[in-house]
Amino acid sequence: MTKTTLVILPTFNERSNLERIVDEVLETKLTVDLLIVDDNSPDGTGELAQALAAQHPDRIYVLHRTVKAGLGAAYLAGFLWALTQGYEYVVEMDADGSHHPDELSTLLEPAYSGADLVIGTRWMPGGTVRNWSLARRAISRFGTWYASNALRLPLRDLTSGYRVLSLRLVEKILESGIQSAGYGFQIEVALLAHDQHLTIVERPITFTERLGGQSKMSKAIVVEAWWKTTTWSLQRMLNRR
C-alpha cells in the first residue's frame, strides 16, 4: 500500500523543542507520518525521539545517524528512507519550532494538486518573520536576492527550509549527487527543480525564531551557500556561452 506524506525533522540537540513540534504536527489531524533524523545528538534528542516513536509506532519513525554531517546529508538520508517506504510526498520542516505545523495544509494543497516543489516563503505578501534582528533579516533577504539573480531563478525565498517535495523531485535529487551541507542544499534543490522544468509554487508562511536550544547557523554555512551559488552561476554562464 502506497503511503502519502512524510514529514522529515532533522535534529541535533533539539531535546527542548522536539516533543512540542511533534505534538503540534499530530494535532493538525493531517494524514502525515513523521521521520526524525537525529545526528547522534549528545543532549539525548535521539533517545527522546525513540520514546515518542514508541508512543506512536504507526506515525513516528526514527533514523539514527552516527555523526553530525549537516542539514543536506540528513535530508538525503530521510529522502532515501521515504523512497524505500513508498511515500509520495516529503515535507521538510525544522524541529526547533520556527515552522508552524498549522500552516502545513497550506503547503500540501498545491503539492497534492500537482506541484513538485512548494516553498514556504517568508519574503512575499502574507509572509512574516518574528523575533529576528534587522541584521538577520538583511542577511536572509540579501542571500535570496543574490542567489535568485545569480542563478536567474524567479523565486523569493531560496533558503526557506519549510517545503513539500513530490516523489518525482525526490527521485531526481537522489540521482543528482547533491552534496551541499547547509542552506546551500535548499538553493541547490530549487535550482534542480527549475532546471528539470518541474512545477514550483510559493506560499507565504510565518517564520518564528526558535524559543529554545541553539541555532545551527554559522559563518561556515553562509560561506558555503555563497561559494556554491557563485560556482553554479559561473558554470551556468559558461554553459550558455
CATH architecture: Alpha-Beta Complex
What is the overall number of helices?
8
- Biggest β-sheet description: 7 strands, mixed
**CATH homology superfamily:** Spore Coat Polysaccharide Biosynthesis Protein SpsA, Chain A
Q: What is the overall shape?
A: globular
Total number of strands:
9
Q: Helicity range of the residues? A: 40-55%
Beta-strand residue fraction: 15-25%
Keywords:
241 residues; alpha/beta; Spore Coat Polysaccharide Biosynthesis Protein SpsA, Chain A; seven-stranded mixed beta sheet; two-stranded parallel ribbon; 46% helix; 19% strand
Can you characterise this structure?
This protein has 241 residues and is an alpha/beta fold. It has a single domain (3-240), classed as Spore Coat Polysaccharide Biosynthesis Protein SpsA, Chain A. It has eight helices and nine strands. Strands 3-2-1-4-7-5-8 form a seven-stranded mixed β-sheet, sandwiched between helices. Strands 6-9 form a two-stranded parallel sheet.
Summarize the structure.
By secondary structure, the chain is α/β, with parallel strands linked by helices. The protein is built from eight helices and nine strands. It has a single domain, classed as Spore Coat Polysaccharide Biosynthesis Protein SpsA, Chain A.
